[in-house]
């Protein structure tokens, strides 16, 4: 799991919250992501399955894509499809992915890079592995997260952000036992490069075996921790977690996680995606690629898509795309 690595001894350190002053967030639930398939058939874990929308707010959906070692000819992606009313965040840990959309956005992301697409009022896009990866095969592992937009921003013009892994704010835990990559939002006064309409924090943490991570967390945000690899515990109560599980935290101002002293041979550390955001607290009506506030707005989105009002497939497309 390369993503972006660094020597934690040389990085700014996050202040460890004083438990006598700042309340630790208790663990409300731990769920296990079921496996499924997306797009043209690439394997995913449904990270938020079984968790209520009220608990997830402002997040909507998250897939762990892979981790899979493709044989030659096997890599798959999606075909052209629409979105309206939210943002998609694609974070690649291993492998390569290409993006193209009807608003002129596009690019290639690889280890540690993020593509942040604001669908807003409507967009068409496609995500696929590049042709050379389809031919050769190889390792692929990433995350796609859907972030809701408030009603006031659901019809904003589409926007695309290409965030290189080296642009993430790299931090260390207070004792150097964990590497923190801040992709968006604020962590202890350090901000990530991702620009968001909904206030959120998105962090990829790598915790060394036997190390403990305690960090401040905005009390106004919810708090989720999804285990990408390895095993350990969450919360001051040390509730066990392993790869493919999501921990949901309750109220408070600090999070605690710890890596087990022993880890699976192929997963030397506890890797966790930490997510939190200020709840929007608005009605959510979700139908396929559209997330709006009312059923009437969903019907309108379908009609607009069918009428070609969400954009047009560019004439110049990625070389491996088809009608």
UniProtKB/TrEMBL annotation:
One Gene Ontology term of the molecular function aspect: metal ion binding
Domain Pirin C-terminal: 203-310
Domain Pirin N-terminal: 42-147
Keyword Metal-binding: yes
SUPFAM superfamilies, per the entry: RmlC-like cupins (SSF51182)
InterPro entries named in the record: Pirin, Pirin_C_dom, Pirin_N_dom, RmlC-like_jellyroll, RmlC_Cupin_sf
Protein name per the record: Pirin
Organism field: Thermocatellispora tengchongensis
Sorted UniProt keywords: Iron, Metal-binding
Keyword field contains Metal-binding: yes
Entry superkingdom: Bacteria
Residue sites binding Fe cation per the record: 81, 83, 125, 127
Family membership noted in the UniProt record: Belongs to the pirin family.
Cofactor note: Binds 1 Fe cation per subunit.
One Pfam family this sequence matches: Pirin
Cofactor: Fe cation
